[in-house]
Amino acid sequence: MTAEVKLLDQNTANQIAAGEVVEKPASVVKELVENALDAGADKIEVTIFEGGTQYIRVADNGSGMTEANAKLAVLRHATSKIRAAEDLMSLHTLGFRGEALPSIASVSNFQLLTRPVDEEFATSIHIDGGEDMRCEQTGGQAGTTVIVENLFFNVPARRKFLRTNVTEGRYINELLTRLALSRPEVRFKLVSNDKEVLSTPGNGSLFDTITALYGKKVSDELLKVEFCGEDIKISGYIGKPTLLKGTRQWQTFMVNGRIINNRMMSKAIDHAYQSQIPKSGFPFAVLLVEVDTHSIDVNVHPQKSEIKFSDDSVVYKALYRALTDALTRPMSAKPQQELEFLPDSELAVFKPVGQGIITDDMPAQPAQQPKPQPQAKPAYADIFKPADTPKPVYDKPMQPSVWKEPEYTYTPPKTEPVYTINEVREEFKKQDTVTDNVIGFTDTDNETSTIWPIGQVDKTFIIAQSEDTLYLIDQHAAHERILYDKFVNAHNNIPAQTMLMPLYLDVTAHDVELIEQHREDFLRLGVDVEPAGEDVLRVSSLPTDIKADGAEDFIREITKMLSEMKNISPSDLRQNMLHMMACKAAIKAGEVLNMRQMRQLIIELCNTEHPFTCPHGRPCMIEMSSAELYKMFKRT
User: Fold this and answer.
1) Parallel, antiparallel, or unpaired for β 43-49 and 187-192?
2) φ, ψ for residue 28 (rounded to 5)?
3) Residue 333 confidence class, pLDDT cut points 50, 70, 90
4) C-alpha torsion 258→264→267→269, nearest 10
């Protein structure tokens, strides 16, 4: 039996359209706020009750509408944004379909109040469930106010799929956060159940908007992104690798002012942060991309949350470069003040030479005459050796000493000297520090010579300081980052050492098969390992940074990695191998370092591209400003 085809009535058609446009209360807020932005508003206030399920009010100070335009605006496919299909290729507004207002009005008790600046009276329109439209003139402020009550009251099946009021309210909060980031020049305010939960300054500063939305702790950890290409411009902020979230909630993408979701842009972030963050973390990012409107298609999703680029590769390459530029050498962004405290002639003594050994007999220009000191201070090296004088008697109890040595008792003088960074440098010259077992670091430019070591804690952590910052450094993670960057820069020319006697290892037949499959990849990484039987491997050479006594553990880690990762690609194999090589070759926790070794480690770390995290994403350097220290000790 053939069913008869009939046209749907207007109200039914609107309710069906609402299923695509109005998914939840946050969808209502999105459409209304985007309309306000298109109307030129610079102040938008959103008020909700019960997560928006019972009451939503969006008020703006935009251009407003005349009575004739207001009556048309609540009809389907009535819009002021476009006139023909060709206009979609040069779209500069957020809305364009003319479906939002009629769709919302069809599933709620709807009220529209609007007035242009040059009109004497406002226009008020009431619609209940898409029927019985009532229009009248009344008083009202310039701009537009839309009130939506009892959302989905006439579509109970849709209402049943809503989440709890708290969850729906959170969706609205997250939406307005992203909208505020896309328009820092607009002042946003969200009031939920008579409580203000969001407010932005609207002063045009993206940084100030981020601070208002996420707090100063987040904004203090941001890196600026700036890129200008031939057909694309990228700006915004990303977080340091230590600023992570368990989801992509902290990642906001905007293309020509429109908030979007895009997998390609998410991948660009993942690849830019590779080897800097753990696999379970997602960095902070607020990125604004500006492209020619003819190179994108915005009409691909009912809620306009996705777009298509004419050439994804151009956007990916530009975004990846912008992110890597921002993440490269974050230390160099700090003001370098060492020249104010130490002349170039004195700095020449401290430039590293050879394999990390610092010598004092380098040619230098004549030093300037030292300034007269008010009183003589004991040598810097004397602070670190035990006293050989009898213990004095004090009239009042002594303060406990921070530094101790098991075989001696150190007695501080009554008045302990306070050393400046400059004096510490001078005393470094006088020290006859033992340089046995100096770690072999590569030569670097000493561009961060403001950071100087103070000591070592638990043979694992280095304490260092600059003029106004305290640094805590994990020596293993720091050296791991240094070695990893060196291996990456070596490409396929990683130096290898031939073992005096080949190492034979008993493994499983499956391990032998896996090793044989990737033999050529291993050779390019300096590892010569091959089958020597059905269940035996022969190791002939290893990277020069891998110690001979750790060769067996290193190879077994490789076989374990291959067995756990199925169908591993050559690029993934290389990355995992470089991680493993850096970890195995790096100095370990528990190794004692002298002051010059610590100094050289700091120089090398600060000259890497990513000094704050190790290749696995763990922090290797934490900084504390003087302001933070004052706050910790309740001095501010």
Assistant:
1) parallel
2) -65, -50
3) very low
4) -40
CA pair distance 78, 99, nearest whole angstrom: 8
124 within 8 A of 138, measured Cβ to Cβ? yes
Taking CA 375 as the corner, what is the angle to CA 370 and CA 377, rounded to the nearest 5 degrees? 85
Per-residue tokens: 193: 């159940």
Cβ neighbors of 161 (< 8 A, separation 6 or more) are: none
Rounded distance, CA 139 to CA 120, Å? 8
What is the Rg, in whole angstroms, of the alpha carbon atoms belonging to the chain? 33
Closest CA to 182 of 281, 272, 254: 254
CB count, 10 Å around CB of 242? Answer: 18
- CA separation for the pair 498, 500 (Å, rounded): 6
Minimum mean pLDDT among 29-33, 178-182, 391-395: which range?
A: 391-395
Cβ proximity of 596 and 438 under 8 Å? yes
Contact 606, 352 (CB under 8 A): no
Query: 540-553: b or e for each residue (b if 16 or more CB lie within 10 Å)?
Result: ebbbebbeeeebee
| Euclidean distance between CA atoms 285 and 276, whole angstroms | 15
Any idea how long the chain is? 636
- What's the one-letter identity of residue 587? I
Tokens of 259: 């908030």
- Checking phi first, is residue 522 left (phi over 0); if not, alpha (psi -120 to 50) or beta? alpha
Alpha-carbon distance of 595 to 601, in angstroms, equals 10
Residue 301 pLDDT > 80, yes or no? Answer: no
Q: Where are the beta strands (DSSP E) in 30-108?
A: 43-49, 55-60
Residue pLDDT, tens place only, 432-451 = 443 333 343 333 444 445 78
| Cα separation values, 292 from 229, 256, 289, 317, Å | 12, 9, 10, 17
Where do we find the tokens 């579509």? 155
Q: Please, what is the angle between helix 509-517 and helix 551-564, to 10°? A: 90
Banded pLDDT at 230 (limits 50, 70, 90): confident
CB neighbour list of residue 240: distance below 8 Å, 6 or more residues apart: 221, 222, 223, 330, 612
Joined tokens for residue 238? 């990303």
Res 430 pLDDT > 70: no
Q: Which residues contact 496 (CB under 8 A, 6 or more apart)?
A: 526, 527, 528, 541, 542, 543, 544
**Helix crossing, 595-606 with 475-490: angle to 10°?**
50
Residue 535 pLDDT: 83
What are the tokens at 559? Answer: 């076989």
H/E run at residue 234: strand 232-239
Query: Tokens 């008010």 — which residue?
Result: 374
Task: Confirm if 180 and 199 have CB atoms less than 8 A apart.
Answer: no
Cα end-to-end distance, the chain, whole Å: 83
pLDDT given at position 303: 60
